């Protein structure tokens, strides 16, 4: 009963603390004439944290270390088991990984960009709540073109945990999002403790990368399709040149007739 009472007290304390923070932030933004669109976004962020208990880790203060570790693993189990990189690894590795991820929870507001196409990549991400949009930039219009969306339980950016890479696409929050971040440096430390899994993870990443490329290829590796496309392009260029040449011939003939 004592632990439950302590937990309820911590919950009330957290709510009161969030309310005071929100009020102080309101005064600060008003005094400094912060633009309305930005102040609204910041207040929405505080409201989300308050209502969703995103900082619920504070409620675990009375738990023992072993219970915190077990709770982390239980919370992150759904994300990790959906990821082919980790779903067949030992329970000890998953528990250690969960402890690392629990310390790296990131909250994004709608429209917030996590990274852009072409940025350096050094982390993998697991979506706990919300939805992330993966996009590429249209350099003619400047618009973001959606490639796909990743919802709760999904993951992305896995190549970056085994090697430094350049992002092939950008990622931004479609809604309020809570994502767990696995940094390349943290992964290296984990694999230092569990070296036998290093090769397994690298093989999975290579396989996943190849599978994502398959829809773009044909049974002959795409060579026949590529050859056909090149042939069609050459044919179109030839037709255009002939049309231009014939048009010039007609124009020259008209001028000759007018001069005579």
UniProtKB/TrEMBL annotation:
<protein>
    <recommendedName>
        <fullName>Cyclic nucleotide-binding domain-containing protein</fullName>
    </recommendedName>
</protein>
<feature type="domain" description="Cyclic nucleotide-binding">
    <location>
        <begin position="85"/>
        <end position="208"/>
    </location>
</feature>
<dbReference type="InterPro" id="IPR000595">
    <property type="entry name" value="cNMP-bd_dom"/>
</dbReference>
<keyword id="KW-0472">Membrane</keyword>
<dbReference type="GO" id="GO:0005221">
    <property type="term" value="F:intracellularly cyclic nucleotide-activated monoatomic cation channel activity"/>
</dbReference>
<keyword id="KW-1071">Ligand-gated ion channel</keyword>
<keyword id="KW-0813">Transport</keyword>
<dbReference type="InterPro" id="IPR014710">
    <property type="entry name" value="RmlC-like_jellyroll"/>
</dbReference>
<dbReference type="Pfam" id="PF00027">
    <property type="entry name" value="cNMP_binding"/>
</dbReference>
<dbReference type="GO" id="GO:0016020">
    <property type="term" value="C:membrane"/>
</dbReference>
<keyword id="KW-0812">Transmembrane</keyword>
<dbReference type="InterPro" id="IPR050866">
    <property type="entry name" value="CNG_cation_channel"/>
</dbReference>
<keyword id="KW-0406">Ion transport</keyword>
<dbReference type="InterPro" id="IPR018488">
    <property type="entry name" value="cNMP-bd_CS"/>
</dbReference>
<dbReference type="InterPro" id="IPR018490">
    <property type="entry name" value="cNMP-bd_dom_sf"/>
</dbReference>
<dbReference type="GO" id="GO:0044877">
    <property type="term" value="F:protein-containing complex binding"/>
</dbReference>
<keyword id="KW-0407">Ion channel</keyword>
<keyword id="KW-1133">Transmembrane helix</keyword>
């Amino acid at each position: 009963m004592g632990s439950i009472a302590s937990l309820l007290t911590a919950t009330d304390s957290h709510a009161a603390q969030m309310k005071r923070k929100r009020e102080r932030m309101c005064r600060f933004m008003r005094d400094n004439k912060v633009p309305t669109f930005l102040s609204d976004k910041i207040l929405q962020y505080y409201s989300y944290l308050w209502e969703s208990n995103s900082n619920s880790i504070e409620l675990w203060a009375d738990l023992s270390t072993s219970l915190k570790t077990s709770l982390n693993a239980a919370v992150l189990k759904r994300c990790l088991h959906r990821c082919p990189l980790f779903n067949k690894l030992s329970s000890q590795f998953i528990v250690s990984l969960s402890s690392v991820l629990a310390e790296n929870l990131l909250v994004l507001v709608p429209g917030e960009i996590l990274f852009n196409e072409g940025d350096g990549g050094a982390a993998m991400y697991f979506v706990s709540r919300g939805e992330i949009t993966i996009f590429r930039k249209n350099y003619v219009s400047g618009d973001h073109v959606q490639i796909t969306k990743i919802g709760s339980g999904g993951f992305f950016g896995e190549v970056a945990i085994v090697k430094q890479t350049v992002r092939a696409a950008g990622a931004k929050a479609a809604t309020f999002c809570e994502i767990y971040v696995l940094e390349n440096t943290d992964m290296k430390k984990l694999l230092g403790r569990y070296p036998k899994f290093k090769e397994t993870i690298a093989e999975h990443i290579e396989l996943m990368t190849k599978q994502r490329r398959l829809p773009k290829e044909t049974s002959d590796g795409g060579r026949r399709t590529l050859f056909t496309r090149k042939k069609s392009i050459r044919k179109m260029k030839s037709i255009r040149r002939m049309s231009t040449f014939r048009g010039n011939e007609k124009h020259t003939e008209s001028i000759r007739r007018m001069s005579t």
